[in-house]
Records
---
Amino acid sequence: MQENEQYRTIRLLKTIFPGFEDMLEQLYRQDPVFREIAMEIRECIEKQEMIYQETGKRSGSYTETINELEEELLMYLNNDKYSNQSNDEK
C-alpha cells in the first residue's frame, strides 16, 4: 500500500512540475521533509477532487493550501537544481 501511495505521489508531482522528473524521485526518496510536503499536496488534491465530484465546486481553502505547498516544493526543486549546478561546476 505504501508503495502505491509513493507511486501516486510521484506521478502527480511529475504532472505539476514537468522537467524535474529525476529530481522529484531523488528528493522524494532522500528527503523526509520533501516527502511529507509531497504527500500533503497529493492528499489535498485528492480531497479537493472528491469535493468537486460531489458538489461541482472547488474548495477555496484546499486551492490555497495546494498553491502554498506547490510553492514550497518548487523552492526545494530550485534550490536542489542550483546546488547541483554549482556542484557540477566544481
---
Amino acid sequence: MKTKKEKPKRNTKAERKQKTSAYAKMETEKELRSKKMIMWSGVSFFMVFIAIVWIVNMKNIFKNNSLLFAAKQENGVSADDFSKNLTKSFSELRAGLNQLKNLQNENQTASTQTQNATDEKIQELKNKLEQSAK
C-alpha cells in the first residue's frame, strides 16, 4: 500500500497576517524595552555626572571662601565685623518685611471698607426700589 504524501496546508492570508503581526508586535516590544533602557541609562549617567560636578564645585567654593576669609582677616577685616554686617543686613531685611506686612494689612482694611460701603449702597438702592414699586 502506497501512502499518499500529504501536502502541507497553505496558510490563508488571515493566518499569515496574524503571524506577521504577532512577530511585529514582539519586535516592537523589544525595541521599546531597549529604547527605554537606553533612555534610563542616559538619564542616570547625566544625573551621576551632574552630582559629581556639583560636589567638586562645592569643594572648590568652600576652599576659595576660606582663602578669601583668611585674606580679609589679614587685611584687617575680622569675624566680628563680618557678623555685625550680617546682623545689620538681617535687621534691615526684617524692617522691610514688616513694612510690606503693614501695607498688606492696610490694603485688606481698605478693600473690606469698600466692600462694606458697596453692600450698604446696594441695600439702600434695593430699599428705594421697593418703595417706588409700592
